[in-house]
Amino acid sequence: MKTIMFSAVFGAAARPERIRFLHEVKAAFPVPVNFVVFNTSETVEADFPVVNAARGLNPQFADPLETLQALLTEHCPGKVDLLLDHARGELGYGLRVFDQMIRKHIRMI
User: Which one, 7, 68, 69, 82, has the greatest CB density within 10 A?
Assistant: First the structure.
């Protein structure tokens, strides 16, 4: 069975339409498919697995981006640059919340 993964701010209070959209997308697939959602804010419940990054401990890292790069190198060495570019694009490299958002990505990994 194929697995499709989504990662976004699916915040339950702010964006319930996003979860409704994913239910519609899942229903439109002609074959059974697994959906896994990585939620980077608040807590979301759905009829498919949701990894809520806001839950759990807030780990401290000397350099979160360096830690993320090491994890990516371990798990998908051929795509490190691509995934780091994606993280920078999604999170707005240089913003005040960048380190906090990288910590959430690390917890999701």
Answer: 68
Those residues whose C-beta lies under 8 Å from the C-beta of residue 14, and which sit 6 or more positions away, are 41, 42
Nearest Cα neighbor of 48 from 23, 28, 29 is 23
Region of 49 please: left (phi>0), alpha (psi -120 to 50) or beta. beta
Q: What is the pTM of this model?
A: 0.47
For 71, the token pair is: 């994890």
- Under a CB-based contact definition with an 8 Å cutoff, are residues 72 and 35 in contact? no
Q: Residues 36, 3: contact at Cβ < 8 Å? A: yes
> First and final CA of the chain: distance in angstroms?
21
